[in-house]
Amino acid sequence: MNPQGAGTIIFPDQPSGMCALKRNTPPPSSKVLLENGYQLDLSRRHPTAVTIKDNVWVLNIHSNRKSVSHGFFEQIFSTLDRYGIAVDLISTSEVHISMALSVNVIEAEMEKAIEGLRLIGTVSVSKDMAILSLVGKQMKNMVGISGRMFSTLAKAGINIEMISQGASEINISCVILERQAIQALNVIHTELLSNVAEEDEDTTAKMTTTDDDDTDKESKKKHDHHAKDREGMLQCALARRSEELHDLSQAFEEALTGKKPLDPPTGCSVAVQRAWVHSSDAHDYRDRLEVLIDEAEARLEKLEERL
């Protein structure tokens, strides 16, 4: 057991040949792996890009009365909408809201909007700011990545004005001074993109290079386990592709009668149903099925080569 390791994802054992049976529980799909922070090769995922958006203002608005939050927010967004101002990032409490805005309107219009907001509450404005975003699929599953991002900025002496993570879960964003944007971009890229790639190479090397017999046995055991999991996934994919090819071939033979089915096919693969939906007539239906058969055969051949 290695408490400092990246962790272990555990899948249930499956009897051989089980994947060939229809509607049995398949091995973990790529979706399950990705949702738990893993690639198909069972390695941890990492951020893929870092971006900067400059020419940003930050508005901090504190309600001038203890009003209900939805009424407070409604007044703020109505005022911004009146002047055509969009919000990039937002952080809220019941009577306080911080917003990062792109200054893509005439500054005079922005000043008018701020004057309107002052009727709602106390407003403070921070100009010449930038939004730094770290991008990667399903960032919430990258344990510790936000802490590493913020500690990297702190070590570089870069202050964070506000923090936000969108519902899409593909990025973590923070607002910093515009004059520090390039510096922040460089340190984040070095620490979380370049260094991570080097760490992955080191980790791979450590897994394949052992110092003694015990370590070698443990490494071989892990390798065999991973290889078994991958082989199981490939076999199930092969079974699904074979079933899809069978359905397509059967539908094509039926289509040779010269008529397109009046109703969408049922109890067959999604590919057959899509061909029916998108075809305009019997001839088009046959052509689409023929193309799908060629594609399915090619995919099946590649899977067989990998096995």
TrEMBL record:
Residues 198-231 are annotated as: Disordered. Residues 134-207 form the ACT domain. Pfam families: ACT_9. GO terms for molecular function: aspartate kinase activity; ATP binding. Its EC number is 2.7.2.4. Keywords: ATP-binding, Kinase, Nucleotide-binding, Transferase. Residues 217-231 have a biased composition (Basic and acidic residues). One of its GO terms (cellular component) is cytosol. GO terms for biological process: homoserine biosynthetic process; lysine biosynthetic process via diaminopimelate. PANTHER family: ASPARTATE KINASE, ASPARTOKINASE. Belongs to the aspartokinase family. This is aspartate kinase.
